[in-house]
Structures are given as C-alpha cells and as structure tokens.
C-alpha cells in the first residue's frame, strides 16, 4: 500500500472527484459516513453518548460538522464548538447549514473553559491535511486545554497540529488523540515514534479514492500490509530436495551469548532453509549441537569468540552478527567476509548473499572504512542505536529516514531500521514500513530470530534480495503476533517467535 504526501493526498481527492463525477460535498459526506460508522462500532456504550465536536474552518471542520449531524441522527447527545476564523471553506458552509438546530453550537475562545464532556468523547476536526504552519493563538490554546482535560479524543484524519509528512517545531501545540481515523491511505506521520503520543491507535477507512491515481503516483513510501504480502512465499515444488532451498552459513555466538546463535539458527531452520551450518566459538559446541540438532556445526580455533572465516564455497547466504561480541578478531573475520563477497564471480560462490546484524554492525560502525566493501544487496538490520553508529545522530525521525534512504542508496544495500514499524530501505530509494509485530517483541533475542529468518529467505533461490528481506520482516512480525496471542505480550520470549515462524510463513504461502 502506498503512502502519499499531504500535497499528493489533496491531488488524490481532486482526481477522485473528476474520475467519479461527484462533488467535493459528496466526497465529504462519504468520508463522514465512514467515520460515523466506525464511531458507532467503537463507542456504542451509553457512557460515550455525550460527544463534543471541535470544528476548524476548513474541510476537516466540514467533516466534523457532517459527523455531528450523523451522530445526532443516531441519537447521540452532540455539541459542536467552532474555531473562529475569517472565512470557512464552501463545503464547511454547506455542512454548517445542514446541521440541525437541535445541535448546540458554541464558539471557541482562547481563554474560555473547553468544557470537554467528562464521560464522553471529543472529536477533533480542527485541522487535517491542510495545516500549513504550526498552530498559534486560539487554536493552540484550545489544543492545550484539550490535552489538559485528558478527554477521550478521536481525531478525524490527523490529530490537529500534526503535519502529515514533516516534523513540526518542538513544543508546538498538537492534539493528543486516543484514536486517529484517517481515509484512503495511511499517513507517514502515523509510523514514526516521535508522533506516537499524538496519533494513538490509528485506523484507515476506505472511502473509494481513485485507485488509478494511486497506482500512477510515485512515492518513496510504502506500507507492507496483509494484502501486499498475500502469496509472497513461493510454493515448495514437489520434487524439491534440501539443495533447492540453499545452504546458509551463520557466524554467531561468543561466551555468554550462545543463546543468540541458537535462536538465529532455530529461526533459520524454521524459515525453510535447505541446510544450515553454524560457525561458532569452541565453547558453544555442546550447547549448539544439543539445541539445534538439524544444523551442522563448525567450531572456531578460539574457545570464546570467532576468529576465523570458514571456506565459503558451499554457501549461498551468510549471516553474521548475533551474539558475536565485539572482540577485535571479529573485525578481521568481517573484513575477510566482505572481501570474499566482493571478489569476481568466478572466484567465489555464485551470488553470496550477506545478512549483517548486531555486533557485526557495531564493528562496521567502529571501522567505517569497511562500508565501502559492502556487496550489492547486502542486508543490514540495525536498530536505531546501531544505525546511529553507522551514520551519526539524527535530528528527528524524519531526518533519520533521510539518513536511512541515503545510506541504502549510497551503499547499494538493503537496510532494515528496526522499530514498531520497521522500515526497509532499498538501493533504489524506496522505504517500506512493516505492519506486523507487537510491543511484546521488544525483548532480548528477537533481533537474532529476525536475522536467522532473513538468512533462510536470502538463501532461497526463488526470492529476490528485496522480496526475501520484506518477507522476513513481515513474517517475523506476524510470528510475533501469533506468539503473543498465546503468551500475551509480557510473557513473550524470542523462542516463542521461532515456534510461530512456520504458521506465519504458511499464511503467506502461494496457493
Ligand atoms: N478535499 C477533499 O475532497 C476532502 C477532504 N477531506 C477533509 O479535508 C481535510 C483537508 O481540508 P482542507 O484542505 O480544507 O484543510 P484543513 O481543514 O486541514 O484546514 C485548512 C484551513 O486551515 C488554514 N490553516 C492551515 N494551517 C493553519 C494554522 N496553523 N492555523 C490556522 N489556520 C490554518 C488554512 O488556511 C485553511 O483555511 C482533510 O484532512 C480531510 O479531513 C475529506 O472530507 C475528504 C474529502
Ligand atoms: K483533525
């Protein structure tokens, strides 16, 4: 699913009107009906029957006025409070006239008490995608009163004061919504941690916006949802053998961190790899062989950490990083691996795919000269701190996305910035936000599981580097969601994610 900018969203509205031969008032009515239907399902309880709708002067306020009329018709006790303005949009005026006289209307002021209903709901229809500057004056004062009132707030389209696709100055007034209900496509702002307190739970409702305009419009931002991923895993051919799904090599573990190697290996095996060999320090031999009997095991000359790179000929994909530790010897191993992957094709195994994670990323951050050796389409899976070690600090989440995009393009690699909406940057400058996963996965070892699964899918001959990476991220999150349904989020441990990789992949298998 695409994510469009605020400007493109306005164009999408226009294109929809032209294509479908409807007026903007009709589209506003459709929007208000979709919102109201959602609202009735969400707040059917008697306690939620008192509703205050705050309306700005533009079409967001017009939506609010139409919603007030529809909720009144559904027998909710509705009040409307209008933000004073020099002029209002034409569709606003149309819906102001249609508001039944039985709905009380007041005008908001900078000092007056907002009088938010204690047990009810406040609908925020002050500003949407038309916001052109930070809120000031009465609008800012109203938003501050609203936030202090600690009311249940539902924002129409966007929490007022929040830009859809750009950062707002620190300390500017933005509504803290409990729910944000938007239309057509998600907004970039919803996916960034810095906006979590404003947006709350968000939802996108279908209002039949022009599919052809969406298809034709270029954007770097994509949202990987369930529809995007249907059938993403190729079917396993009947006459396949273990060679069909590749032989992966995992370089992982150090004394005290063998669990990372075990988890990554388990995920790789559950990810459907044909064969897995792990190269681990000597101290981990018994641990590893006992816990992962399906994998083969090579031990390093060193007992406590990895100091050697094994012969790479047998492998299609190599994963390095989980539990590696940051011993200097690791730098040499990483350098040799990168050099081997860069050698002319006849001297190395065909298409050696790399997955680089955790301590291997920290080593890269400490030795940035190695970045020049990254082979094309290598996958890097940093969390924000690891990413910062590679690029330096970001001013805010939007700047971090710029750094991410730039890094992936410059090094021609795939970079997954991990988070609530993990973002996969491609060498061509696309940013794909993942939709699966839950807060229970913010637990030790969950990244190691992702690395193992990513490794399995990069070894899979039928998946392109991008398709493999996107599938791994999505399936990892989905496995976490299935696991959390069983264990609860607090009780979820990384091993539970491994157990649900199979079921998650099965959902995504091509029929
Ligand atoms: N255009 C359409 O066809 C549709 C629009 N819809 C709704 O319309 C919204 C967009 O409407 P608009 O483009 O009218 O924009 P808004 O309603 O977001 O606000 C725009 C108005 O506020 C003023 N403004 C901008 N920033 C301000 C600030 N900081 N302080 C004070 N005034 C400020 C603008 O000059 C303009 O008058 C969407 O978010 C959505 O809710 C929906 O009804 C769907 C259809
Ligand atoms: K709003």
UniProtKB/TrEMBL annotation:
Entry binding sites for K(+): 60, 124, 160
Keywords: ATP-binding, Isomerase, Lyase, Metal-binding, Multifunctional enzyme, NAD, NADP, Nucleotide-binding, Potassium
Catalytic function, reaction form: (6S)-NADHX + ADP = AMP + phosphate + NADH + H(+); (6S)-NADPHX + ADP = AMP + phosphate + NADPH + H(+); (6R)-NADPHX = (6S)-NADPHX; (6R)-NADHX = (6S)-NADHX
Cofactor(s) essential for the protein: Mg(2+); K(+)
Binding-site residues, AMP: 418-422, 447
EC number(s) from the headed UniProt entry: 4.2.1.136, 5.1.99.6
Record-annotated YjeF N-terminal domain positions: 9-215
Residues binding (6S)-NADPHX: 59-63, 128-134, 157, 260, 323, 383, 448
Record's cofactor remark: Binds 1 potassium ion per subunit.
Top-level lineage group: Bacteria
Residue span, YjeF C-terminal domain: 225-508
Extent of the signal sequence: none
Function: Catalyzes the dehydration of the S-form of NAD(P)HX at the expense of ADP, which is converted to AMP. Together with NAD(P)HX epimerase, which catalyzes the epimerization of the S- and R-forms, the enzyme allows the repair of both epimers of NAD(P)HX, a damaged form of NAD(P)H that is a result of enzymatic or heat-dependent hydration.
UniProt record similarity statement: Belongs to the NnrD/CARKD family. In the N-terminal section; belongs to the NnrE/AIBP family.
PANTHER family per UniProt: ATP-DEPENDENT (S)-NAD(P)H-HYDRATE DEHYDRATASE (PTHR12592:SF0), ATP-DEPENDENT (S)-NAD(P)H-HYDRATE DEHYDRATASE FAMILY MEMBER (PTHR12592)
NCBIfam families: yjeF_cterm (TIGR00196), yjeF_nterm (TIGR00197)
Subunit structure: Homotetramer.
Protein name from the UniProt record: Bifunctional NAD(P)H-hydrate repair enzyme
Species assigned in the record: Hymenobacter armeniacus
